[in-house]
Amino acid sequence: MKKLKIGFAGSTQVNFAGGAGGGKDKLFEQSVQKIAELANKLEFDYYVYPEFLVTGDDALKAREAFEAENVDFTLLQITTFSAGEIVINLAKVDSAFGLWGLPEPSTDGCIFMDSINSFCGLNMYSSIIVNYLKDFSIKHKWFYGNPNDELFTKRFKITIKALRAIKKLKASKVALVGGIAPGFNDLYFDERIGQKRLGLQIERNHEFSEIQQRAEAYTASEIEKSVKEATAGFANVNSVDAKNLIVHVRYYKAYKEFSEEYGYDALGVSCWPKMKDASASLSCSVLSQLNQNGLPAACEGDLPGAVSMLLQKYIVDEPVTLMDLSGIDENDQSILMWHCGPSPVCYAGGSGACLQLSQQPTSAETSSHTGLIADMVFKPQKVTFMRITGEWDKIFLLDGEIIDRQKASPIGSRGWVESLRFNRRKISVLDLMNTILVSGMQHHYSMAASDMTEELMEVAAWLGLKPTEAIAYENYLQV
Fold it and tell me: Does residue 85 share a domain with residue 31?
């Protein structure tokens, strides 16, 4: 896929000189140099419109140039105060849109000779977009500061990360393999709405038998060649029984090559009962290694969960996973995030990630070991949980920190999380639980090992995803 591309232009009025030391020309030149530096660091392409925009006609020509260049983001710097017709024409460009205001080079003297009046222009342009152009529903993000100011650069970096993730998501293909786990009706989705809102391709008609046939067809020598890749990072490979290890390798290889053949970027996988019935095994360890090696794979047929994982991967460019919220502790305001064992090995703490047989019930009185899971306690780190929810039109956003102390938890992939924030604001575990249950949140949460809440909030804003609102706990019925 081509890199994210931004278009950059400056606007001015002829009667503004822009101060001493080169004036407005120097200010714009310094800004172009900063864009070039950031392009190299953040890996995006850019196109600079070669002339200042002074009139509405100038803006129309610039808009045509940016659209011919297929830019993803148009950034207009109000290098000095300039005519309103410029933003009226340029803001309608077929890309995301931003406005950049500059601080005054001088606070005294003649406004036309020594000042630029840029913030006033930024104020006017923002108001024109919100009020005069309200029927065009144009979204814009403002920026302010000199090129090297953190206020500008940090805000700009978040936009680049968010828009890059959106561009990648729109170019992605995802698939459901084998259907949704029986009874997990909260994971149901309408792929038509998802494709329309997010732009990606969704395939939901693959049968699990396609994977099973691949897995069972591999020769012993083919499996032997894949053992190293399929087990890399696990702390106890030599102690795992051969039968279950071979099943793990076969299905890892099958899912990986299936995705490569069809060009899928993420999968929702029917891990049970389909794989359990077919191979007397589970897919937890398989999904763990797929996630570790860059293919987001969501268990229990949760394709919206897989899309959420893919979005997080595109922002952080690191492995992601899918979790249940399995417990709360009001004493230390922490929650237990757990799943059977699909998490990437890089999440493991000091004891490492171990391949372990999972104990599954076969009747009310008996149980048997069935298949491998990735057993680990997560290392202390910042984490973000999110999900695209509703009719693909909402986002659930929670972050916190994995605790740096011992606390009991069942085997599987798991960690206790504290310092909780919901939509970047502190929340109690009781208010969080109430929000989840009253709003009808699905029981799966995509997880990434970083704080990416700013980037996700920006992604939501550009895509029109409404943040799920916190609902404070009350004793009475809340609807």
Answer: yes
How do strand 367-377 and strand 413-422 relate by DSSP bridges? parallel
* Same domain (yes/no): 187, 124: no
| 143 and 193 part of one domain | no
Which of 117, 145, 169 terminates a domain? The answer is 169
Domain C-terminal end among 154, 169, 184: 169
Query: Given a cut of 60, is residue 224 above it in pLDDT?
Result: yes
What domain count does the chain have? 2
Neighbouring-strand partners of residue 269: 177
The C-alpha atoms of residue 252 and residue 231 are separated, in whole angstroms, by: 10
Tens digit of pLDDT for each residue in 35-69? Answer: 999 999 999 999 999 999 999 999 999 999 999 99
What is the value of pTM for the model shown?
Answer: 0.95
- For residue 472, being part of any structural domain is answered with no
Query: Does residue 252 belong to any structural domain of this protein?
Result: yes
Q: Are 47 and 7 in contact (CB under 8 A)?
A: yes
- Residue 457 included in any domain: yes
For residues 191 and 327, membership in a common domain is answered with: yes
Question: For the segment 270-324, what is each residue's pLDDT rounded down to a tens digit?
Answer: 887 777 666 656 789 999 999 999 999 999 999 999 999 999 999 999 999 999 9
Q: Do residues 445 and 335 lie in contact, with contact meaning Cβ atoms separated by under 8 Å?
A: no
477 in any annotated domain: no
In this structure, the answer to whether residues 299 and 437 fall within a common structural domain is yes
The range of the structural domain enclosing residue 346 comes to 172-467
Rounded CA separation 299/267 (Å) = 9
